[in-house]
Amino acid sequence: MTQLLVIKSSVTGAASVTNGLIDRMVDRLRHDVPGLVVTSRDLDASPVPHLSSATLGGIGRGEMGEGSAPTRLLSDTMIAELQAADMLVIGAPMYNFGIPSTLKSWFDHVLRAGVTFQYGADGPKGLVRQKPVIVVEARGGLYSEGPASVMDAQEPHLRGMLGFMGLADVEFVRVERLAFGPDVAGPAIEAAARRLAAIGLTPALAA
Ligand SMILES: Cc1cc2nc3c(=O)[nH]c(=O)nc-3n(C[C@H](O)[C@H](O)[C@H](O)COP(=O)(O)O)c2cc1C
């Protein structure tokens, strides 16, 4: 059995570029990989709540208060999904130069000391089982080069959080300049679709 975990975080519904690209990729993988099991979390349809003083104990920081039990269950469930996956696909639109707050909440629940990372004499160490990660990033502007690149609080943040859990095999598929008009946006989306198709049947999924 081969397991794919998909995390979507767009709030733009049917117009979502990241969701559209991910759906095309997953359709193809379902066709190409016999027995593929896809676990999907759409953080727009089912947002992960923000942490609060009442729930923080659920992720192992501080006391397990009365309100912590549902948080612990959600965190445990999402970490189990992450550990079980042979490949992880994340849809990450750029909202105000960073990731959507719902996606940050997902990370807040899966980055757990002693569970997905730990500190030792050599510093931090990731505890999540190795797997390829594909991040589909959509942006209205251009950040991979040029003057706005210093404003990119999306890709470095994602790379840092994934790496902290031990996930260093990350491919970022960027769709940029979506706000520059249809003549620019259309080809950018199709180029990303071709890139995702070329990633194709990875050894992780073929195993
Ligand atoms: C609330 C919001 C904030 C946005 N902030 C930025 C931004 O800071 N920089 C940028 O280049 N594009 C920004 N955009 C444009 C989105 O990155 C772009 O529309 C992208 O397609 C969103 O991905 P999606 O279509 O999957 O939702 C923003 C869009 C929204 C809805």
UniProtKB/TrEMBL annotation:
The entry's keywords: Flavoprotein, FMN, NAD, Oxidoreductase
Domain of life, source organism: Bacteria
Domain Flavodoxin-like fold: 3-198
Assigned EC number: 1.6.5.-, 1.7.1.17
Chain positions recorded as FMN binding sites: S10, M94, Y95, N96, F97
Cofactor-binding details, from the entry: Binds 1 FMN per subunit.
An example Gene Ontology molecular-function term: FMN binding
Cross-referenced Pfam families: Flavodoxin_2 (PF02525)
Reactions that this protein is recorded to catalyse: 2 a quinone + NADH + H(+) = 2 a 1,4-benzosemiquinone + NAD(+); N,N-dimethyl-1,4-phenylenediamine + anthranilate + 2 NAD(+) = 2-(4-dimethylaminophenyl)diazenylbenzoate + 2 NADH + 2 H(+)
InterPro entries according to UniProt: Flavodoxin_fold (IPR003680), Flavoprotein-like_sf (IPR029039), FMN-dep_NADH:Q_OxRdtase_AzoR1 (IPR050104), NADH:quinone_OxRdtase_FMN_depd (IPR023048)
General function of this protein: Quinone reductase that provides resistance to thiol-specific stress caused by electrophilic quinones. Also exhibits azoreductase activity. Catalyzes the reductive cleavage of the azo bond in aromatic azo compounds to the corresponding amines.
Quaternary context: Homodimer.
Family per record: Belongs to the azoreductase type 1 family.
Protein name: FMN dependent NADH:quinone oxidoreductase
